[in-house]
Structure to design on (99 residues):
């Protein structure tokens, strides 16, 4: 299962409504305007599935920006410093946590 959240600024509200992890999820994030919301989304997903991992893409034609997936804590640092204008954040919940 893959969930693409596209709710124009209400991503945090949707993620707060998740009661259990899903295998894969993505959401768009416009930076720097919504950086705080993005950080809160990552924190919430990190609590929901502590072994979940994150990556992002600034340009879907070029694939994922990071060579490997990061924990929520690691990704918070990357997101806090991200110079892009807009990114798609990808999250994969731990398989054992999604069952």
């Amino acid at each position: 299962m893959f969930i693409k959240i596209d709710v124009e600024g209400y991503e945090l509200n949707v993620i707060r409504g998740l009661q259990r992890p899903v295998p894969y999820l993505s959401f768009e994030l416009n930076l720097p305007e919504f950086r705080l919301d993005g950080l809160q989304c990552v924190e919430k997903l990190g609590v929901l599935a502590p072994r979940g991992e994150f990556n992002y893409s600034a340009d879907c034609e070029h694939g994922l920006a990071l060579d490997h997936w990061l924990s929520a804590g690691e990704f918070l640092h990357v997101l806090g410093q991200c110079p892009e204008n807009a990114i798609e954040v990808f999250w994969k919940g731990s398989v054992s946590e999604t069952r």
In short: Residues 9 and 38 are 10 Å apart (CA to CA). The domain at 2-97 is CATH 3.30.950.10 (Methyltransferase, Cobalt-precorrin-4 Transmethylase; Domain 2). The mean pLDDT is 92. Strands lie at 2-5, 24-30, 53-57, 86-92.
